[in-house]
Structure formats: structure tokens, C-alpha cells
Amino acid sequence: MSHFYYLLGHFNPVETVTMSKKVITREEWEKKLKDVNIRKEDMNKLVMNFLVTEGYVEAAEKFRIESGTEPDIDLATITDRMAVKKALQSGNVEDAIEKVNDLNPMILDTNPQLYFHLQQQRMIELIRCGKVEEALEFAQEELAPRGEENQSFLEELERTVALLAFDDIKNCPYGDLLDVSQRLKTASELNAAILTSQSHEKDPKLPSLLKMLIWAQNQLDEKAAYPRITNFTTAALEDPAV
Amino acid sequence: MVVNQESEGNPIDLFRLASRWRSGAEWKKIVEEMDSDPVPSHLNTINSSGLFHIVSMDKMSVLYTATPQHGHDVGVVQADCPAPTKRLAYYFEMKVKDAGQKGQIAIGFTMQHFKMRRQPGWEANSCGYHGDDGYLYRGQGKGESFGPTFTTNDIVGAGINYASQEFFFTKNAKLVGTVAKDIKGPLYPTIAVHSQNEQVTVNFGKKPFLFDIEGYMLEERLKQQAVIEKLSLQPDVNYSIVRSYLLHYGYQDTLRSFEIASENTYPSVPANGFDDQRDMYALDRRNTLRQLIKNGNIDSAFQKLHEWYPQVVQDETSIVCFLLYSQRFIEYIRVGQTGDAVKYARSQLSKFYSVKSYEDLLEDIGGLLAYEAPEKSCLGYLLDIPQREFVADAVNAVVLSTNPAVKDAESCMYSCLEKLLKQLTLCSLEKRALNEDQGEAFYLHRELQSGGRAN
Predict the structure, then answer these.
(1) Cβ-nearest to A232 among B241, B246, B427
(2) Residues of A whose CB is below 8 A from B256
(3) CA of A143, closest CA in chain B: separation in Å?
(4) Which of A51, A148, B100, B155 has its CA 20 to 30 A from that of B170?
(5) Is residue A115 part of a domain?
(6) Rounded mean pLDDT of chain A?
(7) Strongest mean pLDDT among A3-7, A164-168, B324-328
(8) How many CB atoms lie within 10 A of CB B323?
(9) Sheet (strand B61-64) strand order
(10) Who among A61, A202, A226 is closest to B430 (CB)?
């Protein structure tokens, strides 16, 4: 019996080594954090990049003055881009298309998918206003030919046309198409296309870095217990789970 | 009170705040040095047996001179140091000058005490791609079918992908294949020759590689990015982080425009009431101070501080005072009033000479006097906008620390954004440290420089 326990005692440490993770206490972690240096200028650039990419043109201008950070794009181009976005967000798809073409006709010419989504949005707006016949006509003339070219376009077209079959369109299975989020989705696709055409990154860096933080924390989780940050708006450290 | 603590304890702490008293060039160097392992540059002539082969004078080529009798007279040569690990990937190439009698040439990785008369891959903890059969050998005498054979004039490469933990091999600019890296510990780039007149030359990166290693690494990064981009964030988190950043640093005009513009998208103010209040503290005053310093009006900033927060400027030798006095001096230099600058330094800066930790910094700003065109000198960065911003940030921080509602002074020194970025950097460094120092760490500076994510 004693021999058996001896064996257990012998194997136990081996087990703990393989089972448990390295623990980094809050104190140790905070000390290490102190040694990490982030440049103010770099943070400013990150914020400027966010303002510019998301189209906060006035804020970007003010930030340039207040922080001395140069934007990485001509601020005038943001105004045009925002006008397009605004038109789309308020349901004025034709106006948005016209404005994009004024900006650069290549954008829609080279993006059939974006163009289809804009036309689809136009149809959704018609249905929203109850212009059923106009919507149907538009679907047959403008959308159907494109649907034939592309299977995924066809599916989306079918979903959209299906809206016409319901009296209470808001509560029908395809009601999500009428949601504001659908407008935002199309608007952000258009925004990205314009940015790309201006050889600017289409997404701000900040969200990518925040996602990278989620990823990096998850990765480190596999190897160690350490103070995590789960609430990004307070950035408070949590005690390591031991 | 916090200020006193700081100056009694470690006075440099205030310099940590955000930016640093360092030029851009110095910053670049610091980041580069952080990850600078030694990189192999030539072949090691000391530990190779030398019985069957000769390494050239420039230590870049090897020639098999003997007549091989068996499997224990291979001519193996390692690089002068192991492959560096603190990066995404390591890679080197060799050119087969002459495949000799049998073309029994190999390229791969071995550990320090490898048996130098055996082909890489034949012994445990080694890996090699062999030219005569195109097989891959991983620690056993028996190889596995892997890629094409290689011979005279072929350029063959071997690399380690630290992100995917794989070895990869190339032939004439094409990727041949990858294989899991199951060896732990430092790995030496290794080549081997094993029949008469076989001759190979290595390239450790002094000359451009034939294989597009940059493209390979970019692809690897994009793969990682695609995984990361799939993660989801709370929709308004970006907004509230930017907003609290503007609040924290007192960029009041920007904040106003930002809030007006986002009224429709984010109608409700983020609900983290306490943090919001904390960030709001003394916003108007902080903004005024920032503007004064930003415009080089240090005297007025001093005056306001004396009026509003006498406690932070009470101690004349505190860091905040030092920074303000220094900046005043710098402003004299900027407008070319050298005489006034000297006078000012004598009356106001001399008291800091007794404080050891200011020595280097005093030397720097004093050095400005030595140049006819200081803005073009190596100290020119002191005259740049970021230096004013740095001083303004330090003042901003000490004002924030006077908030009676704040218990943890350290935490109010940093914006939420900075805390998150620090966390990200530290997580990546710790993860690497727990992974035998393998892989790339995150540095914001490098991340912003690389750019081009859209492509």
C-alpha cells in the first residue's frame, strides 16, 4: 500500500507540469506592462486613421490641428465619400449611384457585385415605399439579367422579389432586408470600394487591432493564466483565473 | 501629491506617459534591437570534420574532395549560428555548383551537437531535403517521398515557418513542400555533400534570394489576419475607445465634432459612467493648458497651473516643472533668441543639474545651443511638434492625477486605448517567450508602418 502511494506521489508532479498552466500574477503582469512603451504619435495616427476611414471629416480636421497629426488621405475626398454614404443611408440610392459615378465611374464598372447590391437596395427602397409595380418592373429590367449571370446574385434577387408576396412585409421571413442594417451593409460596401479606389485601406486599423487583442489573449490563454482584459471600454485588468 | 511620490520614487516614470523624450530615429533603433537575434552570415569552419571536404576561404562554399566509402563520411557544414527565431520565418538558400559523381547533396536544419559526418535527417533532431532522391529525411535513415531531385545549377532553399511550426523547402524559386517541425531548440542551417567534386555555395541573405520569401511571409500574415478578422467586436467599442481617448488627452474640439457627427449612429453616450466622469475631469482646463503649450506659450501655461493647480507646480524640481522649464528654453531656441535662452537656462534650469536623472536630458537640450541651425541637427526633434505634445501630455497627466475621485493614480495616466495596446503587446511578447522565443511580436509602430492591409 505504502508503495502504491509512493508511486502516486512520484507521478503527481509530472502530472501537474503537463496539466497546469504558468501563472502570471497581477503584480507581475502590471510590472511588465509598465515596461511596454507605446508611442503617443502612433496612437494619434491610429485615431486619425479611424476618423479618416470612418469619414469623420470635421473631427479629423480638428484633430489635425489639436494633435499635429497629419491625415493619411486628402480630407477633401472624405467629404465626397460621406455624401455618397449619406445618400445611401437615407434610402436615396439613385443619388448615391450618381455621386459615385461623379467621383470615379470606374468604381461601379469594376465592381459588378457592388453594383448589383446597389440595385438591390434600390428595389428594397421601392418596396419600402409601397411602389410595387415600379419595383417589379425594375426587377425584371435591371436585376433579372444580372441574376442570370451569377448564381449568388440570383438567390439574392429571389429573396428580394419574395418581399412582394407578403402583405405585412416587415414581419415576413425576408423582413431583414428592410432593416436599417441592410442599408448600412450596402453603404459600408460602397464606402470600402471608394476607399480602395483612392488606394487607401478600406478598413480602419483600430478594429483589427482590437480583434488582434482578442486573438492574442486567447492564444496566451493556452499557455498561461494571466490578467485578461475582457471589457475593452474600461480596459480593466481581471485577476487571473487560477 | 502623486507628483511628489513620483519625483521621490522613480522620476522617470512621468516620461513613460505616452510619447518619450526620444527622437524617431532612436525609437526605430529600439524596436529593431528588441528582436535582433544574430543572423547566420557564413559557414562554420570550426566544428565541421574537414576530413572529406573543404570550405572555401570566404566560408560560403563547400567542396567534397574525398572518395566516400560509407554513410559515416558525409561532409556536413553548419552555419555560424542558429537560425534566428523572433520572427515569422527564417530562410536560406544554396546553389549546387556541381553535383559531383552522385549528387548526394542535402539541405536542412540540425542541432548544435549533430554528428557532422552524417546527412541531415539521418539522425534524430535533424531534417534534410536530399538531392539524389528528392526525399525528405526526418531523424530516421529512411526518407519519405517529398519533392523533385536537384542537381547542378539548381538553387534550393530551406526555411522555418515559426507561425505554422513547419519546415519548408524550395527549388528554383518554387515551394516544394512543408513538413511539421517537431524539433525543439536552436536549429542550425545545414548543408551536406557526399560524393567527389560535389560543390555548393550558400546564400544567407547577403544576396537577394531566388525564392520570393517576402511574398511567402506576406501570404502567411494574410492567413493569420483572415483568422483574426473573423472574430467579432461589440459594434460601438471602437467609437467609445476613440471618444475616451479624445477625452483623456483633452482634445476638446475634436471630441465635439466627433460627438456631433456620430449622434445618429451612436445616440446614447456609452454607459460606463464612472470612467466617463473620470475622463471628463477638468476637461476645459486641460484643453486650455494643452493649447497654450502647443502654441509654445509656456509662460501662460505655468501661470494657469499656478492658479488652478498650485500643488502640481509647488515642487520646483518636479518633472512637470522640469519639462515646462525645458520647453520654455526650447521655445527661445526655436525663435532664435539664443541670448535669452542662455539667460533662462542659467536662472531656471541650473537647479536641475543637481538631480541625477535629469542629467542626460539637460545635456540634450543644452546641446541645442551648439548648433547654428539646431533644427537640422541630431537634436532637431526637440524642436518638433511631438515634443510640445509630449510636454502637454505630461501636464495633462498630472492634472488628471489631481482628481480626488481617482484612487489609482497609475491607471489614470493612460488612456483606454493605450492600456489595450500595451496589453496586446505584452500578450504577444509573453506568448513568444513561452514558445521558445519563436515568432513575431506585436509592435504598434511596425504595424502602422507596414500598412497596405487592403491589398
Answers:
(1) B241
(2) 62
(3) 29
(4) B100
(5) yes
(6) 85
(7) B324-328
(8) 25
(9) B53-55, B61-64, B198-203, B89-99, B155-161, B166-171, B174-180
(10) A226
Q: Do A233 and B389 touch (CB under 8 A)?
A: no
Q: What is the pLDDT of residue B275?
A: 62
Domain presence at residue A180: yes
For residue range B117-130, list pLDDT tens digits in order: 899 999 999 999 99
Query: Please, which residues 4-23 of chain B have a Cβ atom closer than 8 Å to chain A?
Result: 16-20
Structurally, chain A folds into a number of domains equal to 1
> Which residue among B242, B431, B445 sits closest to A216, beta carbon to beta carbon?
B431
- Backbone conformation region of residue B189, classed left if phi is above 0, alpha if psi is from -120 to 50, else beta: beta
Residue type, B217: M
Chain B residues within an 8 Å CB radius of A216: 424, 427-428, 431, 442
> In chain B, which residues have pLDDT < 70?
1-24, 27, 31, 49, 141, 264-276, 411, 450-455
Residues 224-263 (B) with a CB less than 8 A from some CB of A:
225, 227-229, 231, 233-234, 237-238, 240-242, 244-246, 249, 251-258, 260-262
The DSSP annotation for B203-221 comes to: ESSSSPPSS-HHHHHHHHH
For residue B270, the chain A residue with the least C-alpha distance is A233
The CA distance from B274 to the nearest CA of chain A, in Å, is 9
Q: Cell triple for residue B390? A: 509630449
Distance CA A89, CA A83 (A): 10
Q: What distance in Å separates residue A128's CA from the closest CA in chain B?
A: 21
CB contact under 8 A, A66 and B434: no
End-to-end CA distance of chain B: 51
Residue B1 is predicted with a pLDDT of 31
Examine residue A186 and state whether it is found in any structural domain, yes or no.
yes
What are the boundaries of each domain within chain B?
2-30+235-433, 53-203
Mean pLDDT of A197-218: 91
CATH top class, domain B53-203:
mainly beta
* Residues A234, B258: C-beta atoms closer than 8 Å: no
pLDDT value, residue B214: 94
Distances in Å between the Cα of A15 and the Cα atoms of A6, A242, B57, B329 are 15, 17, 53, 64
- Residue A178 falls within a domain, yes or no? yes
| DSSP tally for chain B: helices H, then strands E | 16, 13
Residue with cell 464606402: A191
A177 and A160 Cβ atoms separated by less than 8 Å: yes
What ipTM was reported for this prediction? 0.85
Q: Could you list the residue range(s) of the whole structural domain that residue A190 is in?
A: 105-197
CB contact under 8 A, B420 and A235: yes
